[in-house]
Specification:
The chain is an alpha/beta fold. Helix content is 34%, strand content 24%. α2 packs parallel to α11, α4 crosses α5 and α5 packs across α11.
Length: 433
């Protein structure tokens, strides 16, 4: 829990958010149908859709709404699995029926997200101008083509682009080809979290910020959450805490690998620069481990980011890498001024697929979105809400409901992850990814 940092001042998204700061009412009933731990996209989606399904819901957040990964990420709404994962890979991991269900949820997810934003009137500067996955190397091109072909066989509206078309749409140097989906886009991720909280509260969910869970005990079939602001009784409990997971159950915090990432934005780009760079305001993410992506903020800045290298002055290191990567993609931006930088934790799983774990009778967790949380945390959160509301069975869920699955050598992997970024940079430079 020491990772929680409610100070969002360094995060650009807070300064430009059109959603007002969320104010909870600290209301409490004697008991609830469902208690949700975690105030990011996953927990907010569960709370919203469980309340819509007629359940009494309380959500508790140790910090403030959206102060974790949900408010600190790059705001890419991606209609695809992480990296080069395909539906076939999901089927191999989950079985045919579940894998196909998850693939459909992933394929449709961005469109569903933007539909929900419009339906709920969330002011998060949503831009659905499309998302592109370009290839920076021959090895990446083979992976990207495999991904495209996998989606194409499922009737997904994917478009293949040659090197010239990728350059035309992005203005970026060095890409050999890629595939495009028009349903993708970008959001202000912090404003999106605030809007989801507002919507969940309007549907009757009680949302309590600055309320840390310190323990949990049985009360017959129900559970009592012990918090810093008193006990909460609920028929069912779900942890939606990802990289900020408390060690309340053996192995739970070790079921994901927390990775510290950084994000930032440049100065505003001029009108002539914007005519050459992302001229239609699409966004893209490539397969580089050291970060190859671009999008505009609502006020016309370009993003940069990567994994934090925890030696020396990490902000200086991150900004230097950001300038170098942007100059590689867009040479006219060499030495561009960086105006914002922040850090936050992301939760990875070994398979890069999320997991639902049964921690105890009527106690579950849902986490591990591996950089695809903007969309998948919300769509799978809705599925989890239906499961907890007993409107879907385990057999109908797009991922398995299993026991706690701690990752082998999780602590070692988490520690080494803080020093891996230079290795990622070298492998990418040698076109090994």
């Amino acid at each position: 829990m020491a990772r929680i940092d409610a100070n969002m001042q360094p995060v650009l998204w807070t300064a430009i958010s059109k959603e007002p700061a969320f104010v909870d009412n600290q209301s409490r009933r004697d008991d609830y149908d469902i208690a949700v731990v975690g105030g990011g996209y996953t927990g907010l989606s569960i709370a919203l859709h469980a309340a819509k399904a007629g359940q009494s819901v309380v959500l508790v957040e140790a910090g403030t709404i959206g102060c974790g990964a949900s408010g600190r990420n790059g705001g890419f709404a991606v209609p695809h699995f992480p990296g080069g994962i395909t539906a076939e890979d999901a089927i191999e991991a989950l079985g045919k029926d579940r894998g196909e269900r998850l693939a459909r949820l992933v394929a449709d997810g961005a469109a569903l997200l933007f539909d929900q934003i419009r339906e709920l009137g969330i002011q998060c500067d949503a831009e659905q101008n499309g998302w592109l996955q370009p290839a920076h190397s021959e090895k990446a091109l083979a992976k990207v083509r495999r991904v495209y072909q996998s989606w194409q066989t499922r009737g997904v509206d994917a478009e293949w682009l040659g090197a010239g078309a990728v350059a035309e749409r992005t203005g970026a140097n060095g890409y050999l080809g890629g595939w495009f989906r028009k349903s993708g886009g970008t959001v202000n991720p912090y404003a999106l979290a605030l809007g989801l909280a507002r919507a969940a509260q309007a549907k009757g969910a009680d949302l309590n910020q600055e309320t840390e869970v310190t323990g949990i005990r049985a009360d017959g079939p129900a559970r009592i959450l012990q918090t810093t602001k008193g006990d909460i009784r609920a028929r069912k409990v779900v942890f939606a805490t990802n990289a900020y997971t408390p060690a309340l159950y053996p192995g739970l915090a070790e079921s994901v690998i927390p990775v510290l990432l950084y994000q930032g934005f440049t100065r505003r780009l001029s009108d002539p620069e914007r005519r050459d760079i992302l001229p239609t305001r699409i966004c893209f993410t490539d397969l580089r481990k050291s970060g190859g992506f671009a999008r505009y903020s609502p006020d016309d800045r370009l993003t940069f980011g990567g994994a934090v290298f925890r030696m020396g002055n990490r902000r200086t290191y991150g900004e230097m890498h950001g300038r170098n990567r942007l100059a590689e993609l867009f040479p006219q931006l060499r030495d561009i001024r960086i105006e914002s930088y922040w850090e936050g934790w992301c939760a990875l799983t070994d398979s890069y697929l999320p997991a639902i774990q049964r921690l105890d009778q009527n106690v579950y967790s849902l986490m591990g979105f591996s950089t695809r949380g903007v969309v998948l945390a919300q769509t799978l959160g809705q599925e989890m809400a239906l499961f907890l509301s007993e409107k879907k069975t385990e057999a109908e869920m797009p991922v398995r409901v299993g026991g706690v699955r701690p990752i082998a050598l999780q602590r070692t992997k988490a520690f080494l992850g803080g020093f891996a970024f230079p290795i990622y940079q070298m492998r990418d430079a040698l076109r090994l990814t």
